[in-house]
Design brief:
0% strand, DNA-directed RNA polymerase, 7 helices, DNA-directed RNA polymerase subunit beta, mainly alpha
């Protein structure tokens, strides 16, 4: 009977396996800060209101506890919807994973919450042309300040 010796994975193999696992994992709402999570949840709420015929302003005001914050959030989300190259895809409110569109919006919100214009542009680079996103950072900053 021969003894087969198992070889342990090399450092490179472990690194590759970790990278594949990281790349295949869907981003989650908990990967971002509270302002980004509130923005994604507001997006999901607006989508639900749109489908059900409810007033998104009233629902956002209830959730954000502030009419001004709700107005600013709705304006930002409407602007994102107008700039998006196709319909914005959202998950159900109970889903912890983010859709690709929600991931971009969460990244935008996180960068604005951090006051990082460069990170904000990096999130949108190659997705929305720079000329079309003019003023979007300032609008996102205003929303984050009211949350």
């Amino acid at each position: 009977m021969s003894h087969i010796r198992k070889s342990s994975p090399t450092t490179a193999q472990v690194a590759v396996a970790n990278l594949v696992a990281k790349l295949s994992r869907m981003p989650r709402i908990g990967d971002y800060g509270i302002d980004a999570a509130k923005t994604v949840m507001a997006l999901r709420l607006v989508a639900l209101c749109s489908k059900s015929g409810h007033d998104p302003m009233a629902e956002l005001t209830k959730r954000l506890n502030d009419v001004g914050a709700a107005k600013n959030m709705l304006a930002l989300l409407d602007r994102c919807g107008a700039l998006w190259p196709e319909a914005v895809h959202v998950h159900r409110p109970c889903c912890a994973e983010l859709s690709p569109d929600e991931t971009i919006i969460a990244g935008m919100a996180q960068a604005a919450s951090d006051g990082d214009h460069r990170a904000f542009d990096k999130v949108l680079d190659g997705f929305i042309p720079a000329a079309q996103r003019e003023g979007l950072f300032a609008e996102a900053l205003m929303v984050m300040e009211t949350l």
